[in-house]
Amino acid sequence: MANDSDDELRANKVAQSIAFTAAQTPPSLRRKAAAGLFVVTLVWGATFIWMKQLLNSIQPQYEEFGGAAVVSLMVFARFAIAAICMLIFFPKARTAVADKTMWKGGLLLGGLMMIGFITQMVGLDEINPSTSAFLTSLYVVMTAVLTIFMTKTKPSRILLFAVLLATFGAGFIEGPPHLTWGWGEILTVISALFFALHIVYTQKVTQALDPVSITSTSFLVVVFGSLLLALYFTDISNPEFWSILIADGVIIPLLCLGIGGSFFCILMVNFFQRYLHPVQAAIIYAFEPVWATAYGLGLGLVDWTWWILIGGGALLLGNLMVEMRVDDQRNEDALPSNS
């Protein structure tokens, strides 16, 4: 009976958690959270290169089994690696497997992640990197729109302008995109929408439930969900299909994606994003293509253009505007009342 009561209390806490900022968050903790998410973008920037390496290594299998089936397998393997890491290193991750409330939160976040990653990877094979960066960056605007809709409050003009700056900076960092609106573009926009939903609901769920436990169950949801998708798209009993995971050029990028891009980054997101407004978090995440471009320059995969400075500068300005606005609001709240 006691366990049922605890489950009900936590379920109610999730349902009632509609706050999009952590109340009375100390400035030091907020800055620590922003720094943590900034580190996440450093790693996520590299995931773009790892995903391209992965897709380039499995082009024959991509043609043989179909893009959706192969991408589902890659997402399955990536999050299986991350889930194994969680279960090994965190006792809470293991106990969460038996907790119905944690599965509810994990089902929500994991489902959003799975759809976002699969549609992004399938779309990435159809369009060029600059177009993908621009369309994916729309999640910053979508996060702001979703927040307005769900809270029935309008963000300040400064915040809205910062959103537009971040979207422009992330989308144009490799130059103006060339849109043709084929399936690749449509899938990438869909992925941006689900990433925006993931940002918003991460805020709600992790303010109510333990971040480690939610990370564990959400990873397992992606593992099982992507496996079911692979089963839908192809015959997974075929040994040739599973041999894709050990094909030349697959293992190292896959390990990097699983350990770095999923285990480390999403765990950090679930720990730190709850201390920031979701729009502020989305603007920080928009630095991802900056690092992807920087890594591409270092590896000779991207040519230098002035758009890199323009896009990076717009992103930096957008983030500084949000930081200054938050500090101003905090100083205003600290002023004594005249009444």
Question: Which word captures the global form?
Answer: globular
- Taken as a percent bin, the fraction of beta residues is under 5%
End-to-end CA span: 49 Å
What structural category do the secondary elements indicate? Answer: mainly alpha
Q: What's the number of helices?
A: 16
Order of helices and strands: HHHHHHHHHHHHHHHH
Q: Determine the mean pLDDT.
A: 83
Helix content: over 70%
- How large is the radius of gyration? 20 Å
* DSSP strand tally: 0
Summarize the biggest pleated sheet.
none
List low-confidence stretches: 9-19, 330-339
Overview of this structure, please?
By secondary structure, this protein is mainly α. It has a domain at 46-153 and 179-276. It has helices at 2-16, 27-57, 59-65, 67-89, 91-95, 100-124, 129-136, 138-151, 157-171, 183-208, 211-233, 239-242, 251-272, 278-285, 288-298, 306-334. Helix 8 packs across helix 10 (183-208). The protein is globular. The relative contact order is 0.20. The model is unreliable at 9-19 and 330-339 (pLDDT under 50).
